[in-house]
Fold this sequence. Notes:
36 strands; single chain
Amino acid sequence: MFEYLIIGLVLIKILGWLWIKKPWQRYTVKPQPEHFFTPPPPRQTNPIPDEEAKKDEPFPPYTQLQPNGFYIYIDMENGIRRLLDADEKNFLKRDFRTIEYVGYANVYICRGPDFCAVYDVAQNQLIETPFEDVRIDVFGHKMYSSNNQQFGLLNENYQPSIKPKPASQFLTGVAPGVLKYYQHDCWYLMNNQGETILGRMLWIAPGALNNKILVRFLDLSFALAALDGTILKRLPYEEMFINIPLAGNAGPDGIPRYYIAGFETAERLPHHTKRKKAYTVLNSDAEQMFTPCYDYLTYFNFDGTAIFMAGIGDMQLWSSLLEESSDEPPRIEGSMRYGVIDAHNNIILPFIYSTIERTNQPFYKVGQHGQVVVVETTDEYDDEKFWDWEIHGIQYGIVSLEGNPIIPLSFAAIHYTPNKDGSVAYFTALREGDDTPAYFDAEGNALDAPVRIV
C-alpha cells in the first residue's frame, strides 16, 4: 500500500512540472502574419562579377543610322526591327524581323516571319508582297523566292513578270537582262523573259566583262559566252578566275577588270607526278597580257588600277602533298616569295616577301623570314580535320605603294588605327616577347603616345 502512495506522489510532481514549464511550446511554430516575409540576404559591397551571367543579360535595344538619314531600331532580345524616320519615329507602324537597305535601288527590304515588304524611299511607299524574300541586284533585277523553292522576276510594281522557276539557289544577275540559276547540280543562264539561253554548266562567272560571260562546261573546259548564250570562244586553260565584275569592262570604281588564268606546264612538281601550273592575266577578250610565269596570282584592286599579288615558289607542291596526306602530316620544305605587279607584268613590289597585305590605305603590310609549318585544322562546315600549312615567325613592317620603307620589318605584329575620316592616325607595333607597344605616325615617325583625330 505504501508503495502505491510513493508512485502517486511522483506522478503528481511530474504533472506539476509539466504544467509550469510547458516544454511542448518550445517545438511549436507560431503562425506568422500574412505580411511576413523572409528578408533578402545582405547585399555584397564588392560583388565578384559573374561573366557567365553577363553573357545571358539581354542586349538593350539600339538604333543604327542609315546613309539616307533613316534609322533602324534593333531589339535583339525580341527579334524586332523597325524602320524609323529622321525624327526616329516608327512611321510605318510595323515590326519586322530583318531590314536591309539596298543603296543602289534606294529601298529598304523589310522581312517578317511569312512575308516580305519593300519600302521605296523615293515614292514614300511600302509595297507588300506575298513572297518569302525579295532581292534587287546591281543591274536592277527584282527577284523573289517563295516557300516552295520557286524563284522568279518582278516588274516595276513588284508583280511577277515571268513564270516561276524551280531552283536550288536564288536567281543572280550577271549582266543587264541576263541572270543565272542553279538546278539539278548545274548552272543555267536565262534572259529577263524567263527563257533559258544556256544550260548545264558546271560554273558561270558572277558577271560579264565587255559583254562576255565566262562559263565552265561539265568537262571542266572554259569558254566565253555572249549575253544571248552563244558560245564565242573556247579557252585552253585548266583554271580561270574573275574579280567581282559588274557591267562593262570596269566596275563602279573605275577599275579595269581582268581574268586570271592558269594552265599545266611540262614541268613536274619536285618528287611528284603532278605537273606545275603557270598563271597569267587575261584581258576582257581572254587574251594573254604576258606569258604565264607565276606559281600564284590573285587580285589587289585599289586606287583605280588593277594590280595583282604574284608568288613564286613551292605552294603548289605543298598543296598537293597536303591533299594526299591522311593520318600523318606530310613533310614540306621550301618557301614562297611574293611581290606585286600590274596587268602588264610591271613589278611594283619586288619578290622578297613572305606575305603581303593590302587595305584601302596607301601602304602595304609586308613580312619576311617566315617558315612554312604544317598544322591540323578543322573544316568549318563539317568539322572534319585536315592538314594545312601556315607561315610562322614572320617579321612585319610597312612599305609605301611604291615599295619605300615606312616601318622596318622587325615586328611580330602591326595594326593601324584610323582617324574619324578614315585616314591612318597611327600604327601600333609589338616585338616578339615584348608587351610594350611602339607607336608610329602615318609617315613612320616614332610617337611617344598615340594621337587620333576624332
